[in-house]
Specification:
Number of strands: 29
CATH class of the domain at 392-593: Alpha Beta
Structural class: alpha/beta
Strand content: 15-25%
Largest sheet: 10 strands, mixed
Strand order of the largest sheet: 12-11-13-14-21-20-19-16-17-22
CATH superfamily of the domain at 392-593: Class I glutamine amidotransferase (GATase) domain
Helix content: 25-40%
Radius of gyration: 26 Å
Number of helices: 17
CATH topology of the domain at 392-593: Rossmann fold
Low-confidence stretches: none
């Protein structure tokens, strides 16, 4: 963050859908609502290029200038999620093909194959024209590439992708013999004699080879990131404004790879008010994709999400403000809505908006005004401080998302598993970062790596160095049991991880329904999920299995390593007792690691610590609508109102927030 910057509050706007009188009305209403940024252009390819080669950006130049004249900045989008009819009609070879080999038709969005060379060519041309026309305009503060990559689609099965798949495989394996060996293709006579024989994971009677399925997902993730890279490189020729993409943990992308070549990270979220952990996880993760650069919430609903097919429950009054304050406190530079004016046509007509199609405030409008009031009040404090790095981190892995899509066991998915584990850390009052696999671990004291089937040698190296310097690394459950190619280890159940952790894995099997009870930290609990059962070697047993198929063996071990320790969690405790056991495990190793950045904040309320210029500030926000409390370690003062807070318990009401600047130690 650059000190002195402002906080942004804005929305997605589609002026191309409305006449001049509505546009003028929108500008007036935006100013009344305090909007200081909008994003435009993401679905407007047919407006910009109604017939092939006939490109006119005059309307959007006019819009950027009009917004700027009215004190509103612009994020310009490339319109590539919605290629026009001239691109699609009569050209099925250019279209996305799903895993049932159904060819998509025109309309909706993401209907084209983003790997098709003609799509890439036309996307580059329209993006170059937009960047030339708009890239230096006053008021342009950023770019968004495309919109929600792979939100409605995942791996394309078209002929173009098949050819590129074979090229990708040859670059990765060099010879088909190496691929056959890596994938174990002698099973079920899958052996290939050339790369051209390797299929896509389309329709089959049972299941695909795990390597084929997972590698195709990784291929797809790499290809969409390459498209993003191409778009960014084109824009940078004509504009210095920073570039992002609005992504999500729910989409079929590798976000760490995607943001590698972008300037700042942003995400879309439609978590409902009764699952604040789903919302907060995104903030704690996106803060760490581009270290040292504030992230954006590019989309969230001012009231509710909806489409022709579904709707979500609307936010209660007060919740939107809590979301916004929490985001700004946790490191967001912007809090933006989808969308400004409700759409009068199309598949998302019922979606929550700031203004209705008929130009009147919606049910969410009063809450938008509350957000704007809060933004203005906290802005000076937020821009003069920085989020404090957590001492506790948890690994997030989109590659693991692919592994668990291939091998979901009982319909498990990485996002759900990680969110559930994260929620425990959150509710225990530990300030935390969610970090991508490749993140540096400097500054952390405690690292959790659950639900990562393949632990790369790079992560193993960084984590072991982290432990050697005094960190505590808690690994598992469901971590380390697969190779890079999504096969099983043959030297040990968990490969090199076992040697590092000082254990031998005696068995791996699903604990559910086996009657297995594990005891640790004075709590006995049922064990679940696909589990690893250990015999300690250089490690010591911390959790022991008391009943079931493997009594006497360990499901939790720890090994002293350098100045720190490695803890293996081989199975997932479940039920009420399981929650107690996991909470005790988290707190035990937070104590062992010397974690100090923690509070006794009640579940449903968060503390976001910030610092800067010798200042230490807590932003405390109630997120669940039930109120909460936290103990202040010393006297403090509200930097906005001057209210003095004494050391001791601080109570918050429903969706209330407070800023506390502490006095010097």
């Amino acid at each position: 963050m650059v000190m002195g910057k402002k906080l942004y509050h804005g929305a997605a706007w589609y002026p191309e859908l409305w006449d001049q009188s509505v546009i003028e009305q929108d500008i007036v209403l935006m100013k009344q609502a305090g909007m200081n940024v909008v994003r435009i252009g993401e679905f407007a390819w047919s407006n910009m290029e109604p017939t092939e080669g006939n490109i006119d950006l005059g309307f959007f130049v006019q819009m950027v200038n009009l917004l700027h004249q009215n004190g509103i900045d612009t994020v310009m989008c490339t319109p590539t999620p919605t290629p026009p009819i001239w691109f699609t009609h009569g050209h099925p070879e250019r279209m996305y093909v799903n895993e049932q080999l159904q060819v998509m038709g025109h309309g909706s969005r993401q209907h084209a194959c983003t790997n098709h060379p003609y799509f890439r060519e036309k996307a580059a041309i329209i993006t170059e024209h937009i960047a030339r026309a708009i890239g230096r305009l006053p008021g342009l503060i950023g770019w968004q590439i495309d919109n929600e990559f792979k939100a409605h689609v995942s791996e394309c099965m078209c002929g173009t992708c098949l050819v590129q798949w074979h090229e990708w495989l040859e670059a990765r394996y060099e010879t088909v013999e190496k691929l056959n060996e890596a994938w174990g293709t002698q099973i079920w006579s899958e052996y290939y004699h050339s790369f051209e024989q390797v299929p896509q994971p389309g329709p089959v009677p049972f299941l695909h080879n795990s390597s084929l399925s997972t590698m195709y997902q990784l291929f797809s993730m790499e290809k969409i990131a390459e498209f993003s890279d191409e778009q960014a490189a084109m824009i940078r020729q004509f504009s210095d404004a920073p570039i992002t993409h609005n992504s999500s943990v729910a989409f079929s992308v590798d976000n760490e790879r995607l943001f590698r070549e972008l300037d700042f990270a942003s995400f879309d979220t439609y978590a409902t008010y009764d699952h604040p952990a789903n919302y907060l996880l995104n903030n704690d993760l996106w803060r760490n994709f581009k270290r040292g650069r504030d992230y954006w919430i590019m989309e969230t609903s001012p009231s509710h999400a909806a489409s022709l097919a579904s709707y979500a429950k609307p936010h209660p009054n007060g919740y939107l403000k809590a979301e916004a304050v929490a985001a700004y406190a946790l490191g967001a530079e912007a809090f933006c809505y989808w969308l400004w004016r409700q759409q009068r046509a199309g598949c998302e007509q019922p979606h929550g908006s700031v203004i209705s199609t008929w130009g009147k405030p919606t049910v969410g409008f009063p809450n938008v005004l509350e957000v704007e009031q809060a933004r203005k009040e906290i802005e000076a404090t937020i821009v003069e401080t920085l989020p404090t790095q957590a001492e506790v981190a948890m690994t997030y892995s989109d590659r693991s998302k692919a592994f668990l899509k291939t091998e979901p066991h009982q319909k498990l998915n990485h996002r759900g598993l990680v969110t559930s584990f994260y929620e425990r850390i959150l509710h225990l009052g530990l300030h935390r970062d969610i970090v991508p696999e490749g993140a540096e671990l400097t500054g952390y004291k405690l690292l959790f790596t659950p639900f990562v089937p393949y632990i790369s040698s790079d992560l193993m190296k960084r984590a072991s160095a982290f432990v050697a310097e005094g960190g505590v690394w808690v690994v598992g459950p469901l971590s380390g049991g697969r190779t890079e190619e999504h096969t099983m280890h043959t030297n040990a159940a968990l490969g090199e991880l076992e040697h590092l952790a000082g254990v031998e894995t005696i068995y791996t099997f699903p604990m559910d329904g086996s009657g297995s009870i594990g005891s640790a930290f004075g709590v006995a609990a049922p064990l679940s999920l696909w589990s690893s059962v250990f015999e300690p070697k250089e490690a010591v047993a911390v959790g022991t299995i008391e009943s079931g198929l493997t009594p006497g063996l360990s499901f939790i071990t720890e090994r002293a390593y350098g100045k720190g320790k490695i803890v293996m969690l081989g199975s997932m405790p479940t039920g009420e007792e399981g929650e107690q056991l996991l909470n005790k495990l988290i707190l035990r190793y937070a104590d062992d690691a010397g974690v100090t950045l923690r509070t006794d904040v009640t579940a449903g309320t968060i503390v976001a610590p910030r610092h800067g210029d010798g200042r230490e500030v807590w932003v405390v926000v109630n997120m669940d609508g039930a109120g909460g409390s936290v103990t202040l370690p010393r006297d403090g003062v509200d930097p906005i109102t001057g209210t003095v807070y004494r050391k001791g318990q601080l109570t918050l009401g429903r969706y209330e927030h407070k800023l506390i600047q502490f006095t010097a130690r």
